[in-house]
Amino acid sequence: MNLRDTIRDIPDFPQEGILFKDITTLLKNQAAFRQALDEMINIARGQKIDIVVGIESRGFIFGAPLADRLRAGFVPARKLGKLPAPTVQAEYDLEYGTNTIEIHKDAIKPGMKVLIVDDLLATGGTAEATARLVETLGGEIAGLIFLIELKFLKGRCRLTHYPVTALIEY
Ligand code: AMP
User: Fold this and answer.
1) Domains along the chain?
2) Is the C-beta atom of 144 inside 6 A of ligand 1?
3) Among the listed residues 79, 76, 52, the one whose alpha carbon sits nearest the alpha carbon of residue 66
4) Which of 10, 35, 54, 87 could disulfide-pair with 60, CB 3.0 to 4.6 Å?
5) Which pTM was predicted?
């Protein structure tokens, strides 16, 4: 199956000028969801992954089953104020203003091999901030996997130190 055919474009959401990639149409299709997870597993196969970090919130949907299949733990990277225990934080730029992402301080131990997962790579700000957090805690980034990459936004240029893979490119 061509996974691209299961993703729906929503123009001008959440604001004018944004073409939103709606993945709910992929997720509700059992064969498509499974294929996406299988393809992600194929990328990670052969590497020893200790922790999968999923980026809030759609990164959780792929990150958690991936962690289970890889026999790894799952760690959520969350938006500011959601995690209850002590955290490390990283700020990143949005089109207007900034955002902050957090990971629990005790979630990753030095030397752990970490795979970062999200649904979509746009400008790369979110993923880069998450990578910084993992490295602050001493984690070693084995790679970053995305379902979708919006190539024209050149997010990959901010992640040149790491292996980056996307299943679908626009
Ligand atoms: P960025 O930090 O610019 O790479 O943005 C990545 C995050 O924003 C991801 O977690 C996506 O879920 C979300 N995102 C950005 N642009 C889009 C888009 N066109 N369609 C759907 N989600 C998007």
Assistant:
1) 46-169 (3.40.50.2020)
2) no
3) 52
4) 54
5) 0.98
